[in-house]
């Protein structure tokens, strides 16, 4: 069954009166003018092959690509040449994260004196949840983590975005408490 058109309804969405029609026509001309301005610039760049083009030719420029210093790509844990890090497993980063991107799994290591000491077992990082807000890095008291500038994170399996940031067989650097 077809719906009967209510003329009061249509008049509320169309410009009403002479002033409404003038505004409508002005908006159309404004839109066309804006489009032509953009097309003029596009056409100019198409005809003038200059070195200082603003658009970067990614991925052709991958070898020379320089990212801004403050670009945030993903959270990583810093390891030195001895495969040592500065993570104590304190969970400050986990608590600071606003969206549960980090899960710290701890264990107890037996010290040479026989005492137990809390240590990190797994630093689980869900890259797919991370908003790169940097709060975890600011919260870390030992500067154990930082932002890396890697950005090609496309995967076909979502679970590949869940990462363990402490490397296999890595351990905490001596003297870090
Ligand atoms: S950058 Fe922000 S969202 Fe990402 S893990 Fe750190 S605190 Fe969480
Ligand atoms: S990365 Fe830093 S804040 Fe997070 S558990 Fe390790 S020491 Fe604590």
Structural features:
single chain, 177 residues, Alpha-Beta Plaits, three-stranded antiparallel β-sheet, two-stranded antiparallel ribbon, 4 helices, 27% helix, elongated, disordered N terminus, binds iron/sulfur cluster
Write structural notes for this entry:
It is a single chain. This protein is α+β, with helices and mostly antiparallel strands and 177 residues long. The protein has helices at residues 7-13, 17-47, 92-96, 135-139; strands at 74-77, 84-85, 102-110, 116-126, 145-148, 162-164, 171-172. The longest helix has 31 residues, at 17-47. The N and C termini lie far apart (76 Å). The structure holds iron/sulfur cluster (2 copies). The site of one iron/sulfur cluster has 13 residues, from helix 3.
Quick recap of the structure?
With 177 residues, the protein is an alpha+beta fold. The protein is built from 4 helices and 7 strands.
* SSE succession: HHEEHEEHEEE
CATH topology of the largest domain: Alpha-Beta Plaits
Helix and strand content put the structural class at alpha+beta
Strand order of the largest sheet: 3-4-6
Nearest-integer average pLDDT: 88
- Domains counted in the coordinates: how many? 2
The largest β sheet comes out as: 3 strands, antiparallel
Percent of residues in helices comes to 25-40%
**Number of distinct helices:** 4
């Amino acid at each position: 069954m077809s719906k009967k058109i209510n003329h009061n309804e249509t008049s509320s969405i169309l410009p009403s009166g002479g002033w409404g029609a003038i505004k409508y026509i002005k908006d159309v001309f404004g839109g066309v003018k804006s489009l032509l301005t953009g097309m003029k610039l596009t056409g100019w760049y198409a005809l003038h092959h200059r070195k200082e083009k603003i658009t970067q030719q990614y991925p052709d420029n991958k070898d020379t690509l320089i990212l801004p210093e403050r670009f945030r790509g993903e959270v990583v844990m810093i390891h030195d040449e001895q495969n040592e890090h500065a993570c104590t497993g304190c969970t400050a980063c986990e608590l600071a994260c606003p969206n549960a991107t980090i899960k710290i799994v701890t264990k107890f290591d037996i010290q040479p004196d026989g005492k137990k000491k809390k240590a990190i077992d797994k630093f689980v990082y869900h890259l797919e949840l991370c908003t790169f807000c940097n709060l975890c890095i600011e919260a870390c008291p030992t500067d154990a983590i930082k932002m890396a500038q890697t950005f090609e994170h496309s995967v076909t399996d979502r679970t590949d975005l869940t990462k363990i940031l402490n490397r296999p067989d890595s351990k905490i650097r001596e003297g870090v408490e």
